[in-house]
From TrEMBL:
Single strand-specific metallo-endoribonuclease involved in late-stage 70S ribosome quality control and in maturation of the 3' terminus of the 16S rRNA. Keywords: Cytoplasm, Endonuclease, Hydrolase, Metal-binding, Nuclease, Ribosome biogenesis, rRNA processing, Zinc. This is Endoribonuclease YbeY. Pfam families: YbeY. The gene is ybeY. It comes from Roseimaritima multifibrata. The keyword rRNA processing applies. HAMAP family: Endoribonucl_YbeY (MF_00009).
Length: 167
């Protein structure tokens, strides 16, 4: 993949309180680039950046999990090259995880955007092989966005390390 793959996917970002213009542009690029890896180039993906309380409510109401989480993906249409979906991301979880991992919260948010977009585009991460494929795709998109050494950050640690558990 070259720097960033061209895509006409419409990206609508909601509830991005105190997000910089640079982060908003990076979120759009992350969605489009992650979708392109999966051969999706048209459609729309909404992104909502919320607090832990809001994502916990969504998690409880839609997935019957009563706890906050990092990202929730809703896929509505997946017919290459067209995709439709929504992501909900917790800015508070991103801040906590980024601090623990030692990288900027904006990078953690982008990781969640990429991860969620890959799910919307049909990628799974239930088996070790799927998790490795997902992690490689995430790192590829992060690198395309100019975030180097992303494989050192994340729930699974370096890509050659054993996964530490579900995300």
């Amino acid at each position: 993949m070259n720097k960033l793959t061209t895509s006409s996917i419409e990206v609508e970002i909601n509830d991005a309180t105190d997000a910089s213009a640079e982060l908003l542009e990076s979120i759009q690029a992350a969605v489009r680039s992650a979708a392109a890896i999966r051969q999706f180039f048209t459609g729309s993906i909404g992104v909502a950046i919320v607090d832990d309380d809001a994502i916990q409510t969504i998690n409880r109401e839609h997935l019957q999990h009563d706890y906050p989480t990092d990202v929730i993906s809703f896929a509505y249409a997946e017919d290459p090259p067209h995709v439709e979906g929504e992501l909900v991301i917790s800015r508070e979880t991103a801040r906590r995880e980024a601090e623990e991992l030692g990288w900027p919260p904006e990078h953690e948010i982008l990781l969640y955007v990429i991860h969620g977009t890959l799910h919307i585009c049909g990628m799974e991460d239930q088996t070790p092989a799927e998790r490795l494929e997902m992690r490689q795709a995430e790192c590829s998109v992060l690198a395309a966005l100019g975030i180097e050494n992303a494989n050192r950050y994340g729930a699974d640690g370096p890509m050659d390390a054993q996964p530490r558990g579900p995300n």
